[in-house]
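TICKET: design request
STATUS: open
ATTACHED STRUCTURE:
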C-alpha cells in the first residue's frame, strides 16, 4: 500500500466526508419525503465526494400515473454544466428535472451545488437506455429494482406471452450474455440471456421459478449449489495460468500480482478486479464512516493482505478459475426440485475463494441462512472442490460488502456495520473448514 487508508477516494462515504450539501436529506425517508411533497423511501445512494450524489427512491403508495411514476431519483449536482446536461438529456425523452434549490457555493467546496429530482426516464446515465428499451416492450411492466445511474430491473409480462426478467444498464452487457452462454454450453443450471431491441445495454431472460433460496432456505439445494460451483471452477481455467516463480516479486502487493495473472484471461471470459484492491477501497470508506473502528479495520486489512497475498490465496502459483463473482443464496432460483443460478454480470476469472467466501458471508450475516453454509461446503468438497483459506476469504467477503447498510439507506446502518466488522474478525480468527480435493 502506498497511501494511507485514511486518504480520500471516490467511493461511498458518510455525510461528513461527502463534501456536499443535502446528503442528510437523501438518506432520510422523512426529510426526502418532506422535500418531494409525497411519501417515499430511499432505496440506494451513491456518493462521489465533492462531485455528485444520487439516491433512488420509491413512493410509499402506488402511483395512479403508472409504475414509472412510482420511482425516481434525487441528486446533488455540482456545476451549471452538469445541470444543463442533465436537463438536456431528460428533455430528449419528454422529462423534466425539478430544481429544488442551489446551495451556497462555499458549502460544497469551490463549485456550489444544486438539488434536483427526476423520474427514472430522466436518470442521467440510464434514462436514454430505458426509453429505447421500452419501445420494444409491450404489456405490463413492474420495476423490481433501481440502482441510480447504474441499472433498472423489470418484470415484463407481454400481453400474449410469458413473463420475463429485463435488465437495463448504463454499460454494455455483452459480458453477461457471454457468461450465460458459457454456463449453457457447460450444462450448468442458469438461464439464457438475450439482448432487447438489438442493443447491448438491455437484456431479457425467462421469469423462472417460485422464489429464491434466501426466501426458502433448503440445505439440500445448498449442497447441490456447492456441487455446481465446484464443476464451474473445475471447468474454467484462465488462458494465463500461474506466473513462473521468477516473475513474482515477493514484495509486490497481492493486487498487483493478481492483475498480472489475470490481465490476459482470454476472450472467453474476463479477469475480475483484484480482490485486495476492492478491500482496500472499501476499508478506506469504512474508516471514514466509523473512525472509532479504524484500528480494527486496518488490522483486518493487514491480516487479509498477508493471508491472501503472494504465495497465498492470490499468489503467483494460484490459477484463476471461472467464478460466479457474486454468489449468494438470493442468486439461486427455485422451482419444485430444480434450481437455476442467476445474475452472472460479475462472472469472470478470479480466485475460487471469492465465490466460497461470498456464499459463507451471506449465510453468516443473515441468521435465516445459517443452515445453508455447511451443506454448500459439503457439496463443494464432494465434487472435488480445491483447497483454499475459507476463513480469510469469508472475512474478505464480509468486509467488501460492509458498506451495504449505508448504501441501502438503512436507518440502523451504524449498528449493522459494527456487527459486520465483528463478524469479519470472527471469521478470520475462527477455525473455518478448508475445502480439500476429494480423493
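STATUS: resolved
RESOLUTION: sequence designed for all positions
ATTACHED SEQUENCE:
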Amino acid at each position: 500500500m502506498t497511501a494511507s487508508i485514511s486518504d480520500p477516494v471516490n467511493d461511498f462515504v458518510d455525510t461528513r466526508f461527502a463534501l456536499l450539501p443535502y446528503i442528510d436529506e437523501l438518506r432520510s425517508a422523512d426529510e426526502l419525503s418532506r422535500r418531494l411533497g409525497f411519501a417515499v423511501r430511499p432505496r440506494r445512494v451513491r456518493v462521489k465526494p465533492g462531485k455528485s450524489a444520487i439516491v433512488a427512491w420509491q413512493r410509499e403508495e402506488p402511483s395512479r400515473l403508472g409504475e414509472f411514476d412510482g420511482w425516481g431519483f434525487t441528486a446533488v449536482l455540482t456545476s451549471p454544466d452538469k445541470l444543463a446536461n442533465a436537463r438536456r438529456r431528460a428533455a430528449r425523452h419528454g422529462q423534466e428535472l425539478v430544481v429544488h434549490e442551489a446551495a451556497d457555493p462555499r458549502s460544497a467546496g469551490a463549485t456550489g451545488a444544486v438539488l434536483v429530482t427526476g423520474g427514472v426516464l430522466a436518470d442521467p446515465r440510464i434514462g436514454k437506455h430505458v426509453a429505447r428499451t421500452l419501445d420494444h416492450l409491450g404489456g405490463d411492466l413492474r420495476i423490481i429494482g433501481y440502482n441510480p445511474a447504474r441499472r433498472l430491473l423489470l418484470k415484463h409480462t407481454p400481453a400474449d406471452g410469458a413473463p420475463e426478467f429485463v435488465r437495463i444498464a448504463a454499460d454494455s452487457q455483452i459480458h453477461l450474455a457471454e457468461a450465460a452462454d458459457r454456463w449453457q454450453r457447460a450444462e450448468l443450471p442458469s438461464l439464457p440471456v438475450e439482448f432487447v431491441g438489438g442493443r447491448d445495454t438491455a437484456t431479457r431472460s425467462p421469469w423462472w421459478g417460485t422464489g429464491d433460496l434466501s426466501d426458502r432456505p433448503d440445505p439440500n439445494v445448498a449442497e447441490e449449489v456447492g456441487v455446481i460451483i465446484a464443476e464451474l471452477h473445475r471447468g474454467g481455467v484462465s488462458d494465463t495460468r500461474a506466473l513462473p516463480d521468477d516473475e513474482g516479486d515477493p514484495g509486490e502487493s497481492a493486487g498487483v500480482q493478481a492483475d498480472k495473472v489475470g490481465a490476459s484471461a482470454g476472450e472467453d471470459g474476463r479477469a475480475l478486479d483484484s480482490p485486495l484492491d476492492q478491500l482496500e477501497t472499501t476499508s478506506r470508506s469504512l474508516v471514514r464512516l466509523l473512525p472509532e473502528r479504524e484500528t480494527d479495520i486496518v488490522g483486518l486489512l493487514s491480516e487479509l493482505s498477508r493471508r491472501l497475498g503472494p504465495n497465498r490465496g492470490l499468489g503467483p502459483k494460484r490459477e484463476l478459475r471461472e467464478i460466479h463473482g457474486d454468489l449468494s443464496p438470493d442468486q439461486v432460483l427455485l422451482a419444485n426440485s430444480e434450481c437455476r443460478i442467476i445474475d452472472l454480470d460479475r462472472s469472470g476469472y478470479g480466485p475460487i475463494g471469492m465465490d466460497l467466501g461470498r456464499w459463507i458471508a451471506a449465510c453468516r450475516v443473515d441468521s435465516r441462512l445459517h443452515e445453508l453454509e455447511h451443506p454448500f461446503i459439503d457439496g463443494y468438497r464432494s465434487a472435488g472442490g480445491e483447497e483454499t483459506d475459507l476463513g480469510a476469504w469469508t472475512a474478505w467477503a464480509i468486509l467488501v460488502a460492509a458498506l451495504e447498510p449505508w448504501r441501502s439507506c438503512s436507518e440502523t446502518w451504524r449498528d449493522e456495520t459494527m456487527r459486520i466488522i465483528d463478524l469479519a474478525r470472527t471469521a478470520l480468527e475462527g477455525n473455518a473448514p478448508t475445502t480439500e480435493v476429494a480423493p
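CLOSING REMARK: Residues 219-235 form the longest helix (17 residues). Residues 130-206 form a domain with the Phosphorylase Kinase; domain 1 fold (CATH 3.30.200).
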